[in-house]
């Protein structure tokens, strides 16, 4: 195996390119992807603490820096970026309409969400979905709170308009396609086992599927406990499987990933192989492969790379060949791995619910794409 790795590493040549849905997961795109903390949007986020330039007694400056770090940790980087983008969208609309966005005015916000629903808030005249409007409203509310000027969302100019938007425009959610076991096996066959990138991508797909993990949980894993500040969990390799400890919105949870029936599809073997040949001993588990595929860097993968990997492998494997390439790319995402486990695991539903970390069985059922909806027949049970 080592000889295969070395031989392919010498001959493997890749061109670095800007990130796109067709980019291989982990290609050297870090240079063109600013992080949430360094982007203009991330820098514009308000804080309830004094700005770094505000004069503080010398003995409190370090404490203030630590407090700002805790403020950042109160929400994920993706949430902060989304909220900053939504706030920018709202304030830009206010400016174009000749309206002031400060202090908060429920009537102005009500007009804004009306414009979003009707398509008048953007140049392409495309109406926003109800989900997008609700997220924008949450972002606006959060930004006002951080500025010390709370917005009253229960005001009739907002609450009544939003209720009308929901009643008029609400539609069933568009679910991503589930990656089923036969799909996953075909996707694994498209990956080159003789390269570091191929070994890493196999491990990510198998761990993501078998653990029912979110894409942020996959890339947030460390090799062991308390190794990085930005880690969202860690792994422990045991005789019977892989124990994954994760930090979620509601606290810590453990996910058990058992060994597979064969080495070719075993997530534990895939992780062990990646660790061995990538020589990853400490820090982020899944990292960028750099230097044209010959070396593994120290940087953690961005969670968008998981979505790109799933899309690319699904397309290469020819899954849902009845659809166009564009439609297939739209159907698959990192979420497809979670949906695949929920749909294919032939066990009691409560075990699937625990694995996915859902608070209710109803949420788990939303992930199940091919469950027998009529297994319990109340019509016959009632005597008809």
UniProtKB/TrEMBL annotation:
<dbReference type="InterPro" id="IPR002104">
    <property type="entry name" value="Integrase_catalytic"/>
</dbReference>
<dbReference type="InterPro" id="IPR013762">
    <property type="entry name" value="Integrase-like_cat_sf"/>
</dbReference>
<feature type="region of interest" description="Disordered">
    <location>
        <begin position="1"/>
        <end position="53"/>
    </location>
</feature>
<dbReference type="GO" id="GO:0006310">
    <property type="term" value="P:DNA recombination"/>
</dbReference>
<protein>
    <submittedName>
        <fullName>Site-specific integrase</fullName>
    </submittedName>
</protein>
<dbReference type="GO" id="GO:0003677">
    <property type="term" value="F:DNA binding"/>
</dbReference>
<keyword id="KW-0614">Plasmid</keyword>
<dbReference type="InterPro" id="IPR052925">
    <property type="entry name" value="Phage_Integrase-like_Recomb"/>
</dbReference>
<dbReference type="InterPro" id="IPR011010">
    <property type="entry name" value="DNA_brk_join_enz"/>
</dbReference>
<dbReference type="Pfam" id="PF00589">
    <property type="entry name" value="Phage_integrase"/>
</dbReference>
<dbReference type="InterPro" id="IPR010998">
    <property type="entry name" value="Integrase_recombinase_N"/>
</dbReference>
<dbReference type="GO" id="GO:0015074">
    <property type="term" value="P:DNA integration"/>
</dbReference>
């Amino acid at each position: 195996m080592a000889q295969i790795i070395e031989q392919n590493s010498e001959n493997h040549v890749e061109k670095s390119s800007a990130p796109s849905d067709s980019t291989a997961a982990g290609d050297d795109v870090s240079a063109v992807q600013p992080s949430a903390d360094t982007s203009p949007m991330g820098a514009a986020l308000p804080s309830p603490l004094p700005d770094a330039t505000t004069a503080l007694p010398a003995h409190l400056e370090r404490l203030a820096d630590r407090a700002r770090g805790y403020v950042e940790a109160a929400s994920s980087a993706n949430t902060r970026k989304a909220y900053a983008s939504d706030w920018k969208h709202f304030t830009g609309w206010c400016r174009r309409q000749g309206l002031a966005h400060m202090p908060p005015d429920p009537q102005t916000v009500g007009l804004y969400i009306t414009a979003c629903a009707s398509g008048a808030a953007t140049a392409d005249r495309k109406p926003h979905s109800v989900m997008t409007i609700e997220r924008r409203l949450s972002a606006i509310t959060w930004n006002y709170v951080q500025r010390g000027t709370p917005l009253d969302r229960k005001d009739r100019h907002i609450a009544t308009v939003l209720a009308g938007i929901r009643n008029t425009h609400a539609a069933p959610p568009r679910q991503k396609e589930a990656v089923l076991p036969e799909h996953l096996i075909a996707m694994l066959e498209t990956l080159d086992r003789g390269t570091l990138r191929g070994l890493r991508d196999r491990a990510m797909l198998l761990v993501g599927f078998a653990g029912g993990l979110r894409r942020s949980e996959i890339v947030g894993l460390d090799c062991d406990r308390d190794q990085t500040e930005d880690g969202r969990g860690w792994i422990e390799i045991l005789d019977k499987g892989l124990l994954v400890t994760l930090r979620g919105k509601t606290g810590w949870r453990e996910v058990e990933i058992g060994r597979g029936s064969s080495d070719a599809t075993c997530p534990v073997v895939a992780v062990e192989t990646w660790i061995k040949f990538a020589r990853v001993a400490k820090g982020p588990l899944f990292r960028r492969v750099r230097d044209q595929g010959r070396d593994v860097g120290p940087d953690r993968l961005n969670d968008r790379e998981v979505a790109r990997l799933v899309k690319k492998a699904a397309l290469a494997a020819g899954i849902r060949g009845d659809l166009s390439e564009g439609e297939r790319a739209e159907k698959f995402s990192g979420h497809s791995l979670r949906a695949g486990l929920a749909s294919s695991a032939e066990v009691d539903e409560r075990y699937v619910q625990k694995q996915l970390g859902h608070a209710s069985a109803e949420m788990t059922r939303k992930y199940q794409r091919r469950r027998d909806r009529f297994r319990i027949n109340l019509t016959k049970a009632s005597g008809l």
